[in-house]
Amino acid sequence: MASSITAAPLTIKITEDITLNGQQQGTTNTITTANIAEFSRRIVTIPTSEVNLISLGDANSAGTFHDTDVQYIRITNLDDTNYVTLSFEGDDSVDFCVRLDKNRGTYLATLNHASLGMDDYADISAATLEAINTIKAIANTGACNLEVVVACK
User: Fold this and answer.
1) Between 122 and 56, whose confidence is greater?
2) Is the CB of residue 10 less than 8 Å from the CB of residue 32?
3) How many CB atoms lie within 10 A of CB 20?
4) Neighbours of 55 (CB within 10 A)
5) How many CB atoms lie within 10 A of CB 2?
6) pLDDT digit string (tens) for 20-63?
7) How far apart are CA 122 and CA 99, in angstroms?
């Protein structure tokens, strides 16, 4: 079956808007990623026990995105009380964690397979990146809603 989806560019705008002492200090940066053919957006309730949020693998399957196709990931904490911790796991372990604070925490990544990766070395000059396999989430004291966006070519 041939696809009727026509790939399109994804435009991401990051804007900081602030005026200090009468002078505009903000900025807008625009990033465009071509050939996006798959776009997933969902609201996920995260409990106080760790759950898989995003899985990346060799092929699309239930709950798994094809790692070489992922171009963009955004995870935003929509909760007005609690924070969420994201754990990024590679081949061997949890390699780093990010705290998403209430109503403002956002993890944003523009990716391509060549730059997708992480390392758990303390000295980055000796780093050997490994692929991200799973992003897990856990809410700190009460369930939280996360908005999750993934765009793939």
Assistant:
1) 56
2) yes
3) 8
4) 17
5) 4
6) 999 999 999 998 999 999 999 999 999 999 999 999 888 888 87
7) 20
